[in-house]
User: What shape does this take?
Amino acid sequence: MRFQAIEAVLPSQVITNEDIIERVKGASQKGLSPADLASLERRVRALFAMAKTETRYHRAPGQTALELGVSAGRAALKRAGVDPRDIDLFIYVGVARGYLEPATANVYQQHLGLVNATCFDLLDACASWLRAVQVARTFMEAGTYRTILILNSECNTREFGNPRFTSLADLENRFSGLTIGEAATATILSPSNGTDDQFHVSFRNWGADHGLCKIPLPHHHEYDNGDDTWPITPLQFFARGERLFRSAFTKMIHHYREDEVIRKFRPEISFSHAASDAMTERLGKRLKVGPAYLTHRRFGNTVSASIPLGMAFAIQEGKLLSNMKVLLGCGSAGITTGWACFRYTD
Assistant: This one.
């Protein structure tokens, strides 16, 4: 499998920790005492430091998720030298979307002129992009499709975020939302024409922990059967951050060690879902895997865009080169854990 292009587009507004803290203070001052507001600020600063969060990018007023995604798609097509009419499969991935139906892929198909592509959405929270790569490779191996575009436009902050805190206890459930950044990425894949890329991918799911992170719909109670025991609000991002990180960390280690191909692979560079640079570094040390390309400090948690965003910038900086051995890791809501290894071919 050949990566003909991996492109990333960022919104224009740079957001710092100070910007987020001011938003939180402004939105929360009516519901918290001055003492609690000061305590909230101290705790948020400490958590940012622990996660190594510094900056992220958000849409400026008037900037839309659609235009970011279209820009990423066009950049990838240009980079790959591929005519839009030559894309025969298009997969839209990620959490951010405008509709439950139809597939958001149909909207981008129209705007990108992918007139010969069949298309669909694939959703598995932060693991969506890696899932789509596996699906794309399977289709290529079967000879069903040859030139495949995978796109996301992860713009979620003003849609699913809420800077208003009514108690210090809210921080346990909603701090992770303060680290979210926005980005759009586009990846074009094609067969490697006989070159052995040594591609191997493995996924595991741990559904008993599905309640640790979610964005519920208004009718979620029809499906939870009493599983959602914590206070969740429809269409607002919820994450039991500390428990989620601890659980995902343990499960990623277990998954890595049980997969012989992944365990024996010796990467020259690795990329992971960037929920926290501190967690990525800790995971790398525990598994003795490296060097890791880190993105959280600069871009925040960009959800399903994290891995392709990192790869796009590593290519620009000359840190990801053709024929390098690459390891990808992902711990996602669900909980889903995913590992992939391959020899990168551009």
